[in-house]
Amino acid sequence: MRSNRILHLVIAVSCLCGIARASVPADDEFAKKAALDGMTEVQLGRLASTKGQSAAVKSFGRRMVTDHTKAGNKLKAAAARAGVTLPTELDAEHRAMVDRMSQLSGAEFDRAYMDMMVSDHQKAVADFEMQAKSGTAPALKSFAAATLPTLRTHLRMAQQTAAKIK
């Protein structure tokens, strides 16, 4: 009887450990997605600061370069503490976004860029809220919570800038 209880306890602990391990990829995926999105924001921000027609779009682009570069550096540190290896260059999907935007100019660029920034920051806020609430890696959870206010500000700025240029 006692050996059955021990066996059940071992199985239960094994299952719980499996659940903990199963949640780690979510932290890993969050960190990798945040890194790719952040690198994309920096590259698109550089494009906006030179290709944008509107002064507001150019200014927004410069802000994205500054803020997302800082966030990227903080993410690298948090990912290292969590044992997550981040990508160092854009994947095909993110590269295609940058390439597509680089083909546009003038008012067409401004509208497409700001529409993308509103959509991307809505998704980022949701992703970071989820990580801050449910992440299992303390360093990544803390990074997400600390970055959320800036992302919410970016979303408001993107919405306001988009409204100005339409």
Structure, described:
The protein has 166 residues and is mainly α. It has one domain: Up-down Bundle (Ferritin). 88% of the residues lie in helices and 0% in strands. It contains five helices and no strands. It has helices at residues 2-51, 55-82, 92-102, 106-134, 138-165. Helix 1 (2-51) runs antiparallel to helix 2 (55-82) and helix 1 packs antiparallel against helix 4 (106-134). The longest helix is centred in the N-terminal third of the chain and has 50 residues, at 2-51.
What is the element layout, followed by pairings?
Layout: H1 2-51, H2 55-82, H3 92-102, H4 106-134, H5 138-165
Query: What do we call the CATH topology?
Result: Ferritin
Order of helices and strands: HHHHH
Tell me the helix content: over 70%
Beta-strand proportion: under 5%
How many angstroms separate the termini?
74 Å
Contiguous low-pLDDT stretches (5 residues minimum) are 2-24
How would a crystallographer describe the biggest sheet?
none
CATH class annotation: Mainly Alpha
Q: Which whole number gives the mean pLDDT?
A: 89
Throw out a few tags for this protein.
single chain; 166 residues; mainly alpha; Ferritin; 5 helices
Give a brief outline of the structure.
By secondary structure, the chain is an all-alpha fold.
